[in-house]
Amino acid sequence: MSSQYNIRFQRFVLIISIVLMLLKFVAWYVTHSNAILTDALESIVNVVAGAFALWSLIVAARPKDSDHPYGHGKVEFLSAGLEGSLIVFAGVAMMAKAIYNFFYPIEVHSLDFGIYLTVFAGVANYITGKYLEAQGRKSNSHAMIADGKHLQSDAWSTVGLLIGLALIYFTGILWLDNVVAVLLGAFIFYTGYKLVRASLAGIMDEADYVLIEELIQIMNENRQNNWVDIHNLRVIKYGSKLHVDCHITLPWYLNLRESHEEGERLGQLINEKKQDDIEFFIHTDPCISTSCKICQKTDCKVRQFEAERKIEWKLENVLSNKKHGS
């Protein structure tokens, strides 16, 4: 999926977020409900975060240059981190406002009209967020995924808000509004924490074991006879782009051209199966005598030992920096 499509789609989402934010503030103005106010305040975060996500997609789409040889994709992690930080701040502010109004209550009224507006905004947020996350996963855009998750969490918090407002409407117990606001603030705080945690993991190049498992499965299912061993595999994320380093052990008698072709074959395989923008740096190692015991190449004329077993590539052996046969 092209980066320009992502930019256009994120711009559309930003416009929707602005409209929904205005609707929520209208609902709060009519009802004076703290729970609705918390929802409206989070919508400000939606707009700010959406604008920053749009900017990050524009920056990430820039081509590689001498100053950024791996591209500009890391900015998407900054976008997700900022969004998470804003959500954390909004959650704290919501809880503080609700606690304040336990002691200094504000009358809640016209709940029916406020509920209608809130329901509409919540449904729109969920649909937009779900589609945005799906598009982000297709293009491996962390900024879009984070923004989509944020919009969905906003929709789920709206569900909780509506439950609270319904209790107030039917019971007449006004302080329930503040209880709901505190619970929603705590939920939003946790959502923000998870986004900050994920963005830091990307910036610090924390290993994504789920992704690595996918790559290992593809290599196991499409294993070639010349691929004696794969080890020292590392994956670094640059926004929607992936940079993969690995060592591949090949028969020692292959010439330079043949070894290069085997490396190209491995890179093409992963790109075709994952359908992502993956850059491979493959280091080729010559096999050694002990490699014969795990080598599955049946037409090898210089074999020194018979094959004893086939090693399935797994996290524990593919990530280690040693040949499996050594």
Descriptive report:
- This protein is mostly helical and 326 residues long.
- It folds into two domains: 3-203, Cation efflux protein transmembrane domain (Alpha-lytic protease prodomain-like), CATH 1.20.1510.10; 209-318, Cation efflux protein, cytoplasmic domain (Alpha-Beta Plaits, 2-Layer Sandwich), CATH 3.30.70.1350.
- It is 64% helix and 9% strand.
- It has a three-stranded mixed sheet with strand order 1-2-3, with helices on one face.
- Helix 1 packs antiparallel against helix 4 (111-139), helix 2 (34-60) packs antiparallel against helix 3 (75-103) and helix 4 runs antiparallel to helix 5.
- It starts with a helix and ends in an 8-residue tail after the last helix.
Secondary-structure blueprint of this entry?
Blueprint: H1 3-31, H2 34-60, H3 75-103, H4 111-139, H5 142-171, H6 176-203, H7 209-221, E1 229-238, E2 241-250, H8 256-274, E3 277-286, H9 315-318
Parallel strand pairs: 2-3
Antiparallel strand pairs: 1-2
Helix pairs in contact: 1-2, 1-4, 2-3, 2-5, 2-6, 3-5, 3-6, 4-5, 5-6
Tags for this entry?
single chain; 326 residues; mainly alpha; Alpha-lytic protease prodomain-like; Alpha-Beta Plaits; 64% helix
Summarize the structure.
Helix content is 64%, strand content 9%.
Number of domains: 2
Strands, total number: 3
The CATH homologous superfamily name of the largest domain equals Cation efflux protein transmembrane domain
Query: How far apart lie the N and C ends?
Result: 42 Å
The SS-based structural class is: mainly alpha
Q: Oligomerization state of this entry? A: single chain
